[in-house]
Amino acid sequence: MNPYGKLNKPLFWRALWQLTIPYWRSGEKWFARGMLAFIVGMNLAIVYVNVLLNDWNNDFYNALQAHNKTAFFAALWKFCWLALAYIVLAVYSNYFSQMLQIRWRRWLTTDYLDNWMRRQTYYHLTLTSNTDNPDQRISQDLSSFANSTLSLSLGLLSSVVTLFSFLAILWRLSGLLTIPLGAAGIYVISGYMVWFAIGYAIIGSFFTHLIGRPLISMNFQQQRFEANFRFGLVRLREQAESIALYRGEHQERSLFGRLFADVFGNYWQIMRQQKKLTWFTSGYNQIAIIFPFLVVAPRYFTGAIKLGGLMQTAMAFGQVQGSLSYLVNSYSDIAQWRSVVDRLIGFTQAMETARLGEVTTVQRSNNSGVHIHELKLCLPDGRVLLDQLSLKLGKGDTLLISGPSGSGKSTLLRALAGIWPHAKGHIELDADATILFLPQKPYLPLGSLKAALYYPLPVADEDEELKSELALCELEHLVPMLDVTDNWSIKLSPGEQQRMAFLRLFLVKPDIAFLDEASSALDEKLEAKLYDRVREKLPNLILVSIGHRSTLSAWHELRLELDGHGGWSLLGVNGDKVEPQIGIGNA
To answer: How many helices and strands in the chain, by DSSP H and E?
Structure first.
């Protein structure tokens, strides 16, 4: 992820354009553009109502000054219609804006989820990037981006239209300002209220940016600290049993304290900076209330304008000054929006970088079985784990991968799965083969127990077969809970979870299976029972296992021994070396 401030302005605006424009060119483009045009139209109508209200001020206050009862009630009746029109436009402008925001967010969320999940990008990010909390960027930052981009853009458009609508009015109402210059005569300024409004807004915008600029980086950090704290709490819930067994509450509580200290400390800095900004903007906006009266008062007291003209001029000045002060009044929102954009740009670039390192060593071909040719595996730091491995496995072949801890056994399985980026060589897998990987800690998705058993396949209706397999795996006590939805990765013991993984193997019936310490939580008797069941029910299965137990050798006819320094040897049942390119069994 690019840290905040690394992108210069041209690159930032280009990245922002690439982040924003796809939705407006997507399959929803006509709805999105039409809805946006409709919302813009309502915002323009609101500006027009404000122009009419500005004229109304003149009529209403002149009627008061003249004690004209008829004109007074006529102005009140006109105000009722203008107020009703304003309310209707404001309500539906906000309603349709929210409709467009949620649809834009839906599209963005779908797009980011597709990119994040595509070709295991979510996994490669953990290896190639230090991008923090991608879940928060998808769930929260995308929502903030859609909402803030639309509201800030519409606010800017409204300010620009309001500015040009009231600029001519204010110029007309300002009249001439004469400044005596002694012997040099007098100096006349046309539309002087316009120049006062512009000058006032420029000064306010300059100091607002000067005071508020640090809020951008502070908000960026705040989102990261909040996400880290939330992730720590979720991690405690997921690892509750392990932490309870270790009696690790004190350490976890200390960790939460440190994580929240970051949240608290950074938020305190935001508060202090926000206080400075609020001091200035509050003073700026309060002075803006009285400032136009001070400037136009001399003309009123000389009788050049009436009370209605005074109020109309003050309102027009307020509209022009408010439009020019868009930066002053929206700076906090802009700062938060900028931090969200920076995080999304960084996340997008990190995903693109992760995909550049996509694994190309694994290919699906017409060759049956598993063909490995001159495979080289390295760690991210470049250290070689396995070098020049060549191996061929056919139907019914069974291979046990062994070696000391850290020798690259699990890394080899990751390479075979096509998710390890630091691999060179060629791996060919049968294009028509169904492949299943069983890690040491099985993945149990949220949902019903039955859905977890069939994962990643759709749930089948063969309940009798399922109940029979549950009994063979000594999981018959789970039969009444098949339709129960729960967090099964917490509810079930490690042994039960591994038995469920074997049951998944029987249900999916793959052509190739890779087991990484898949029976480490089982006793040897149950392990033998399950492996025997695998060989009996799936005789043509290509079975590749990782394990340290010597008992596993009885269920595998080949053993690949790794030394962790690049070396390897392929052994047969009796410990004799086997020619790497020759498979056994039914190959």
So the answer is: 18, 14
Distance CA 320, CA 447 (A): 57
CATH topology of domain 362-571: Rossmann fold (3.40.50)
Residue percentage of the chain with pLDDT more than 90: 6
DSSP structural state of residue 138: I
Q: What is the pLDDT of residues 295-354, one digit of tens each?
A: 777 777 877 777 777 787 777 777 777 777 777 777 778 888 888 888 888 888 888 877
Give the domain ranges of the chain: 9-356, 362-571
* Cα distance between residue 286 and residue 290, in whole Å: 7
Give the Cα separation of 23 and 323 in Å (integer).
Answer: 29
Question: What is the sign of the dihedral through the CA atoms of 245, 248, 252 and 257?
Answer: positive
Instruction: Please spell the DSSP secondary structure of 284-304, one letter per residue.
Output: HHHHHHHHHHHHHHHHHHTTS
Q: In terms of CATH, what superfamily is 9-356?
A: ABC transporter type 1, transmembrane domain (1.20.1560.10)
Alpha-carbon separation of residue 36 from 13, 20, 27, 28, 368 (angstroms): 21, 14, 15, 12, 55
- CA–CA–CA angle 286, 290, 296 (5° rounding): 150
Specify which residues 362 forms β-bridges with.
427
pTM here?
A: 0.69
Where do we find the tokens 């953990």? Answer: 126
Q: How big is the chain by its Cα radius of gyration, in Å?
A: 35
Q: What does 443-463 look like in DSSP terms, one character per residue?
A: ---SEEHHHHHHTTSPPPS-H
Q: How far is CA 569 from the centre of its chain?
A: 45
Taking CA 447 as the corner, what is the angle to CA 489 and CA 508, rounded to the nearest 5 degrees? 80
Beta bridge partners of 391: 372
Residue whose entry in the numeric block shows the structure tokens 């069939």: 454
Q: Are 327 and 208 a contacting pair, CB within 8 Å?
A: yes
Question: Each residue of 43-94: pLDDT tens digit?
Answer: 889 888 888 887 888 788 888 877 888 888 888 898 899 889 989 998 998 8
* Residue 35: exposure state from Cβ atoms within 10 A (0-12, 13-18, ≥19): middle
Q: How many residues does the chain have?
A: 587
What's the angle, vertex CA 463, arms to CA 460 and CA 469, rounded to 5?
Answer: 100
